[in-house]
Specification:
Number of helices: 19
Radius of gyration: 24 Å
Distance between the termini: 47 Å
Oligomer: single chain
């Protein structure tokens, strides 16, 4: 059975050639971030992923988690792996050195988290939520809250969670019933939360829960929700641990996948009420929680990238060993490995090209996030933040959908063996399937895109992106057959995206139902066009480097990149025209259903 290896060559290529590491290194605070430093970080992250996390992926899936007397036991080896993770300082890569972080770019942290998800997604979910909790406190927490909790969260000595969903309140958080009562300088929280990732575990001594609950005097609906920090173990003024808080895990969900990640039903306030500390102001909980959710949404897109990469490696390894049937078009009667058959080649390239495209778009978005926070020009910061806001639902939804598609294709490459758990192929599909549901289903992401990011903004940001894509496409040299085809496909794709965008902007005020019916295909259209742009840029840069005849170039890698870019143009980007048709005309049948 194949093992996971971090795709360091492609990571380096994307970071340096597409995400512009040189530009990030010119930002204040990042002057020491060189390609050599990033290479060293990725090398060490790759070792942890392949040598520590990946070997636990299958055994963790088989063993699962157990709840005994309120205590969750994770699979064998997981607590020890987590200790190695925090000993290496990996939890603090992108965070403020004031709290013990390393102060590195989000671009670098994004690459490391792809490795964690590719090696062992169930494990990676724990630090993913911790990082989102840190982001929340960094932006909205008081000095007192940051002083009490940030250092331990940044180090990973404590972990964080997100508590929103309740049995009657899934995506409709207006129906949240958990409530808070003021009690001196804190609040007492009561209620039940479900689907809480790593809500209880044996990795750390303390778990810091971010909990949505109703304000004591707040209005009905979503505007009456506030956000509270609710530690599992209360923290004394000197930072040491005190008494157990009034909260507990009452059950674990039995899931389709990610079995090594405890998904908990949490009960708050069975007795006197769980002590919680208000974040910011009352009745602004949803506003604050969106900071955490958007961080998590970008991370979920990386789940798609990581699993797609792992599933691709697994399928390629099998296809290179499995002997089945004679080669098409040859008189040789000997059977060959299945990676010689055209349809298997097509499937493997489908997996490879889509993985490379979503990786590039995720890293590009991370670089834009760095610019939005650190660029000295406020106008540039605002422009880049608008781009991050636009791309966040795309990275989350297109990334997770693609991860599912790639993992599903991996099962197909294995044939009958792929339907058998022992092959290892089904686990990738079972694990990544949740990513299309996490943090708002992908339909919700698509509605967020067309309503908040396109319709209400009248397409300003997406039209700026369209202009950038079109300008690049028009400059692609046509003296290379592959690049000529790629340029034509990109031009047709951006035409389709522009037509669909113009229709949404024009229709949004008059027929919001018609626009909503095309939300998912529009998100996919934006994803594959932006991904096609990334792949076109990759192909153009690979061609340029190949033409340079530098003996130090990895020609095999660059030639493979050209093949991936051409495949993406011929097999995926060409879907843009059909998606545009669905966006602009698909309401006719949906409206009569």
């Amino acid at each position: 059975m194949s093992t996971y290896e971090a795709p360091l060559a492609d990571m380096r290529f994307v970071i340096n050639e597409l995400a512009d590491l040189d530009g990030i290194a010119r930002l204040p605070g990042f002057e020491d971030v060189s390609p050599d430093l990033v290479d060293a970080i990725l090398e060490e992250a790759g070792k942890l992923g392949s040598e520590v996390l990946a070997p636990l992926n299958r055994s963790g899936d088989e063993e699962g988690c157990v709840l005994e007397n309120g205590v969750v036991r994770t699979p064998k080896g997981f607590p020890e792996a987590y200790q190695k993770f925090i000993d290496g300082g990996w939890n603090g890569v992108p965070f403020d050195p004031q709290f013990g972080g390393q102060g590195l770019p989000a671009l670098v942290a994004t690459a490391t988290f792809e490795i964690w998800h590719g090696a062992n997604m169930a494990f990676a979910l724990c630090p993913t939520l911790t990082q989102a909790a840190i982001e929340l406190l960094s932006v909205h927490g008081s000095d007192a809250l940051r002083s009490r909790f940030m250092e331990k969260l940044v180090s990973g000595v404590w972990t964080g969670t997100m508590n929103m969903t309740e049995p009657q309140a899934g995506s409709d958080l207006a129906k949240v019933r958990s409530k808070s009562v003021r009690d001196g300088d804190h609040y007492r929280i009561t209620g039940q939360k479900i689907f809480i990732t790593h809500g209880e575990h044996d990795f750390t001594d303390n778990i810091i829960h971010m909990v949505l609950a109703r304000s004591p005097d707040g209005p009905e609906g979503i505007k009456g929700l506030s956000l509270f920090v609710v530690p599992k173990i209360l923290v004394k003024d000197d930072g040491s641990l005190g008494d157990r808080n009034d909260l507990r895990c009452v059950s674990l969900e039995h899931k389709m996948g990610i079995n090594a990640s405890p998904t908990c039903v949490m009960s708050y306030g069975d007795n006197e009420g769980a002590i919680g500390y208000l974040v910011g102001e009352e009745n602004r909980g949803i506003e604050y929680m969106f900071t955490m959710m958007n961080n998590a949404r970008l991370a979920i897109g990386l789940e798609g990238v990581g699993i797609a990469e792992a599933a691709s490696q697994h399928a390629r390894s099998y296809a290179a060993e499995r002997v089945q049937s004679r080669a098409v078009g040859l008189d040789d009667k000997e059977s060959v490995t299945i990676d010689r058959h055209p349809d298997v080649k097509r499937m493997l390239l489908f997996m490879q090209a889509q993985t490379e495209a979503i990786r590039a778009l995720a890293y590009y978005s991370a670089a834009a996030l760095d610019m939005s926070k650190h660029h000295p020009d406020e106008n540039v910061r605002q422009e880049k933040q608008a781009l991050v806001d636009l791309l966040t639902p795309v990275v989350k939804a297109w990334g997770s959908d693609t991860g599912i598609d790639v993992a599903n294709t991996g099962v197909q490459v294995f044939g009958g063996a792929g339907y058998i758990e022992e092959s290892g192929a089904p686990q990738f599909l079972r694990d990544v399937r949740i990513a299309a549901i996490y943090e708002g289903t992908n339909g919700i992401q698509a509605n967020d895109l067309i309503h908040r990011k396109v319709g209400r903004e009248k397409g300003v940001t997406v039209k700026s992106l369209i202009a950038d894509i079109r300008a690049f496409g028009e400059d692609i040299p046509d003296d290379n057959d592959d690049l000529a085809v790629i340029g034509q496909a990109l031009g047709a794709g951006v035409d389709a995206l522009e037509e669909a965008t113009d229709w949404i902007v024009a229709t949004y005020g008059d027929d919001i139902e018609a626009v909503s019916a095309g939300a998912v295909p529009y998100l996919r259209l934006l994803g594959i066009t932006a991904g096609g742009w990334m792949m076109a840029r990759a192909g153009a840069r690979a061609a340029q480097r190949l033409a340079g005849n530098n003996p130090d170039e990895d020609r095999a890698f660059l030639e493979a990149k050209m093949v991936s870019a051409r495949f993406f143009a011929d097999h995926i980007l060409v879907q843009a025209k059909g998606l545009c048709h669905t966006v602009t005309r698909g309401w006719s049948a949906v409206g009569r259903f």
